[in-house]
Amino acid sequence: MKPKVLVYSKVDPKVLDFVKQTCEVVYFEGLEEETFPTFLHELKDAHGILGAGLKVDDDLLKNAPQLKVVSNISVGYENLHLPAISARGVMATNTPGVLNDTVADLIMGLMLSTARRLPELDQFVKTGQWDSNLGEQYFGLDIHQKVLGIIGMGGIGSAVAKRAHHGFDMEILYHNRSRKPDAEEKYAASYCTMEELLQNSDFVLLMTPLTPETEKLMGEKEFSLMKKSAIFINSSRGKTVDEEALIQALQTGEIYGAGLDVFVNEPVEVDNPLLSMKNVVTLPHIGSATYETRYKMAMSAATNLVAGLKGETPTNLLNKPVNI
Ligand SMILES: NC(=O)C1=CN([C@@H]2O[C@H](COP(=O)(O)OP(=O)(O)OC[C@H]3O[C@@H](n4cnc5c(N)ncnc54)[C@H](OP(=O)(O)O)[C@@H]3O)[C@@H](O)[C@H]2O)C=CC1
Ligand SMILES: O=CC(=O)O
């Protein structure tokens, strides 16, 4: 008998076909309030789940006694309670690597958009405010030859360092839990403390996972250490930042601007002050959102899932289940 798998996010039909070769699939295309009870019902005899963002903790696992694999279609996995998953002998996987270049491309775009005020100036042109006396109202900041500080020099951080160093001639500083000799050699990246990084960078990129240690890693004190001309970029998770402190730093001119792909609440509330600031560029959490990369992520997650259900060790196993 084929193992039963619940796919709870929309994926390319080729990915579904791949999973169907070895599994019986129940497809949800996304979980809504109306479909969640059916999902819970189907979970009772499911062996695997595949999708993005579902909170998997002991409460959910109680409904899934047959479960063997939880496969996340994302690299971030703060939605997975690994101790509870491991205690029930279930494997958990994510999709690192395949999205690094796509997210790094977007981050360069965010840096350029914020420094050169691209969305604001696009509106100038489209609303007939283009004044032929090209004056300071169109000026922004250079990014080439500036200092980029990367907090979290992992897969994505390194892909940004590559672009910034080789493409934009930027100097790279980084802060991380462990030293990264590869980045130091290839991108001339200098390791430093958080404080040194914040004081000396023209652009500060936050790129750590969301963990108890990184929650509100950037707060009032950290923003106050940044240069007044500096730009803050967040493409990690909204909760790695104290959003109130960021708003305050932008309102008081403590920093020049911010480029944000992630927010504490997503979708962000329309009355969030960040949305009405000219010096803030906002995106709806789209770091990895290209056709090519979303396909690769879903296929990587499907491959992890199928491997786990066959009794093999998935390439991107995150935990050590008690019975393995
Ligand atoms: N906006 C978007 O669409 C996307 C957002 N993301 C987010 O980006 C995060 C990073 O992804 P990725 O680069 O693939 O992950 P990696 O695990 O490759 O890199 C994360 C880096 O952060 C470092 N780190 C972890 N904790 C701390 C800490 N307390 N202080 C300093 N550094 C720390 C790690 O250090 P060490 O090497 O020592 O472990 C590691 O080098 C994801 O977890 C996700 O939340 C990812 C994809 C898309
Ligand atoms: O935010 C996206 C991810 O892959 O993590």
CATH homology superfamily of the largest domain: NAD(P)-binding Rossmann-like Domain
Per the principal axes of the C-alpha atoms, what is the gross shape? elongated
Mean pLDDT: 97
Low-confidence stretches: none
Calculate Rg over CA atoms: 22 Å
CATH class of the largest domain: Alpha Beta
* Biggest sheet overview: 7 strands, parallel
CATH architectural grouping of the largest domain = 3-Layer(aba) Sandwich
Bound ligand species:
NADPH dihydro-nicotinamide-adenine-dinucleotide phosphate, the ligand O=CC(=O)O
Judged by helices, strands and strand pairing, the structural class is alpha/beta
List the secondary-structure elements in sequence, H or E: EHEHEHEHEHHEHEHEHEHEHEEH
Give a structural overview.
With 324 residues, this protein is an alpha/beta fold. The chain has two domains: 4-98 and 292-309, 3-Layer(aba) Sandwich (Rossmann fold); 100-282, NAD(P)-binding Rossmann-like Domain (Rossmann fold). 35% of the residues lie in helices and 14% in strands. The chain contains twelve helices and twelve strands. It has helices at 13-20, 36-43, 58-61, 82-87, 100-115, 118-126, 155-168, 181-186, 194-200, 220-225, 243-251, 291-309; strands spanning 4-7, 24-27, 48-51, 69-72, 91-93, 147-151, 171-175, 190-191, 203-206, 231-234, 257-260, 280-282. The chain has a seven-stranded parallel β-sheet with strand order 8-7-6-9-10-11-12, with helices on both faces. A five-stranded parallel β-sheet has the order 2-1-3-4-5, sandwiched between helices. Helix 3 links the parallel strand 3 (48-51) and strand 4. Helix 1 runs parallel beside helix 12 (291-309). It is elongated and about 70 Å long. It starts with a strand and ends in a 15-residue tail after the last helix. The model has no long low-confidence stretch (mean pLDDT 97). The chain binds NADPH dihydro-nicotinamide-adenine-dinucleotide phosphate (NDP) and the ligand O=CC(=O)O. NADPH dihydro-nicotinamide-adenine-dinucleotide phosphate (NDP) binds next to helix 7.
